[in-house]
Predict the structure.
Amino acid sequence: MKKSTILKGLIATIAALAAVALNAQTPTLNGAGASFPAPVYQVWTYAYSQTGKAKVNYQSLGSGAGVSQIKAGTLDFAGTDNPLTEQEQAEAGLVQFPMLTGGVVVIVNLPGVKSGELKLDQETLSGIFLGKITNWNDPAIAALNPGLKLPKSLKITVVRRSDSSGTTFIFTDYLSKISGDWKEKVGAGSAVKWPVGIGGQKNPGVCNNVSKIRGSIGYTEFTYAVEAKLAYAQLKNKAGEFVMPTPDTFRASSENADWKDAPGFYMVLTDQDGATSWPITGVTYVLFRKDASDERKAALKGYFEWCFSEGAASASKLNYVPISESVVEIIREKALK
């Protein structure tokens, strides 16, 4: 055999061994949970994996599934929009911190009605989801929308989540704050006994049902509504102003949040004060285990730090609000030290 052939074989073998060694040194971080931030997480996990520092995976399973799996120790990190209290974190051996802020919006399928044209106040919105208002020509809706051509005799079909969902927690928490009737009969939670409606799996499932059913109304994270090209409503906020869902109105809801004094970073941003505040603003959180190895924690910290810095721009492009640098400093001090 020629020396050149042997040399080429040795070089190929060395290269293959080097690749194996490199892959062995590159950790794989597995995450799952909330579908609320999934559009951003999909971008982040791909981009960070390209850096070669770690391969990151994230499955959009819903907040409930994410919390269950991180408690069981089958994940490196989980996403949830339904925050755990400090006591719940301690009992499960978990660390929690906020990753993004976004908005839950009310989406509708009404012929001839575009985004932002329909207005709903607190009483009307809760009345629809309680099953008290069942038709789009109801006087309560008409009174809020003079001049808007609403369909006659079109039944309202409520679409809601069928899985355990942080988006549902945010939405039902808001309904519990604006309606005593809702609070008493249904309450807030990641899974509730809905008075009316049909279910959809995760945010995409709700959007898909609303897009197919004339006269339907549902709720979803803002980016999903934009991507599905679904019309969304203006809502009347706590200050009595009708506002549109935008990153600016989401940010306005979080401006007065006192993260420094929030035990375990527990914070709910629904129905906040302020003339420009979006009333159904939510925070999505990350959970990881206290008993993770030092190597695993270092890999996770590297990824989270990248998300806060390099990932902020892509989050903004997808209509989320990145966590401010002042809050990131608190997170570094309390959760990522």
Remarks:
- The first helix runs from residue 3 to 25.
- The CA atoms of residues 1 and 7 lie 10 Å apart.
- Confidence is low (pLDDT under 50) at residues 13-24.
